[in-house]
Structure formats: C-alpha cells, structure tokens
Amino acid sequence: MSKRVSARKAPISPARAASATRRILEQLGQQHPGADTELHFTNAYELLVATILSAQCTDERVNQVTPALFARYPDARALARAATSELEPQIQSTGFFRAKSRSLHGMAAALVEQHGGEVPRTMEALVELPGVGRKTANVVLGHALGVPGLPVDRHVLRVANRIGIARSDDPVVVEEQLCAALPPADWTRASDTLILHGRRICKPRPLCERCAVTDDCEYFRHVVSKERSTPAPRRATRARPGTTSRAATSKRLVRSRRAKPK
Ligand code: SF4
C-alpha cells in the first residue's frame, strides 16, 4: 500500500459497509471459490498447534511439520509432557522455533490445567492461552469450533483497506468494521477469501488487471488508474558506447572556446 491508512480514520458509512461489503465479498468469493484455511488439521487442538506454528511461516511448511508432530503428541496432555528442548528440533523449519516451542508447551499445559485438555470455545478463554492472540483464536473458532470468527492477518488488512471496505491499520478495528458489515455466518469465509485474494492477486504489488473488484476498489480508482493515466517521465538519453552525448559535446565545445588564444 503506498498510502498508509491511519488507525481510526473517519468511519465508512453504514450503508456502504453493509451492502457494498457484502457485494464485494460475493464477487471475490466467485473469483476464489472454496476459500478455506490451507492448514491441515482434524480437530481444534491440531488447528491451534498449526496456527501457532504458522506465525511468520507458510502454511505449506507448517503442513510438512505437523503430521509427525500430531502423531507423537496427539492431544494436549501429550504435548504438555514434552520439554521445549524436545519440541525445538521438530519445529525448527517453521522459524522462531524457540519461542514457538515455549508457546506450544505453555498452551498445552494451560489446556490441561484449566480446560481439562480441551480447547475452549470462547475468544476470552482462548486469548488467555500462551502464544494465542486474537487472530489465532478467530482461526480456531471459525474453522474448528463452528463459532463465527473473522481472523485479520496482513492480507486482510491490506486488501480491505485498499478496496475501502475497512479503514484502519489496527487489525481489531478492521475486524470490528468487517463484522459489522457482514452476517456472522459469513465472517470466516470472508477472511479466507480476502486472505486468498491478498496472496494471489492483491499482493503488495497488486495484479489489478486480474482482479474481480476493480470497479469497487478505492485504491484502484485513486492510485492505480491515476498512475496509468500519467505519462511516464522522459528519460535522459544516454550516449551509446563509442559515441558522445550532446551534453558532453557541448561542454567540450565551451572548454575549447575558453582555451582559444585571443
Ligand atoms: S483492484 Fe487492485 S488494489 Fe484493488 S483489490 Fe483488486 S488487486 Fe487489489
């Protein structure tokens, strides 16, 4: 994004938020049918582990690591018994493995001590677990527990602000704005769709010519289309090897005239 949008700017009108946001998400949904998390899991515990590992790491890489991890630690009790030094080499390839080992161990121990080994079904309880922030909690709620949740990651933040269906640098504010405009049943799918759009099309250098919502996108209207209609600045012509540029010739002429005896 070339222009950063400051947190808590003027709110978008409720009418646009409600109807335009739904329509735009519908169009994006058609462009990315079946959008879903790309992390592999079979229950809430596994998705919680996978989402913690996915911080600063690709889902693909996490999916390479988790099958062996889930086989060795099939539930929170097994994971809580593992020492962090034992976990570290197993998750090293996902990056930040020391911090992630501490988070996994602490999260599993808290599940055992406070929730009977089960993953709690509320945002309040989830964010109390070590290594679990609001985004991770929303991923687990929405995808594994059937509780509406709208995770806001860097892709959702970028795409929603560019289109103009949210206006803030703060993920919590963007989550509030999108949730206010969409029915709860659509929250998780909306997040998945915006994430896929951000990964495939609306990248940091957006591929607007392949986008389904250019007509509704503020960034396209105010930045991309203006850049396209502005003629490119003329570039200074360089002298070809073996030739002399006009500027160099003129400088040499001036020097030679000054040097001439009167
Ligand atoms: S038009 Fe361009 S900037 Fe706007 S959402 Fe599509 S890809 Fe992103």
Secondary-structure topology with pairs:
Layout: H1 14-31, H2 44-53, H3 59-72, H4 76-81, H5 84-91, H6 97-115, H7 123-126, H8 134-144, H9 154-163, H10 171-181, H11 187-200, H12 218-229, H13 246-259
The structure holds iron/sulfur cluster.
Which ligands, by name, code or SMILES, are bound?
iron/sulfur cluster
- Our Rg estimate from Cα atoms comes to 26 Å
Uncertain ranges: 1-7, 239-254, 256-262
| The CATH H-level homologous superfamily of the domain at 44-144 | Hypothetical protein, domain 2
CATH C-level class of the domain at 44-144: Mainly Alpha
Largest sheet: none
* Approximate helicity band: 55-70%
Describe the protein's architecture and organization.
- α1 packs across α10, α5 (84-91) crosses α6 (97-115) and α9 (154-163) crosses α11.
- With 262 residues, this protein is mostly helical.
- The longest helix has 19 residues, at 97-115.
- The chain has a domain at 44-144: Hypothetical protein, domain 2 (Endonuclease III, domain 1, Orthogonal Bundle), CATH 1.10.340.
- It is built from 13 helices and no strands.
- Residues 159, 162-163, 201-202, 206-208, 211, 213-214, 217, 219-220, 224 line the site of iron/sulfur cluster.
- Iron/sulfur cluster (SF4) binds next to α9 and α12.
Descriptive keywords:
single chain, 262 residues, mainly alpha, Endonuclease III, domain 1, 58% helix, disordered N terminus, binds iron/sulfur cluster
Question: Quick recap of the structure?
Answer:
The protein has helices spanning 14-31, 44-53, 59-72, 76-81, 84-91, 97-115, 123-126, 134-144, 154-163, 171-181, 187-200, 218-229, 246-259. The protein is mainly alpha-helical and 262 residues long.
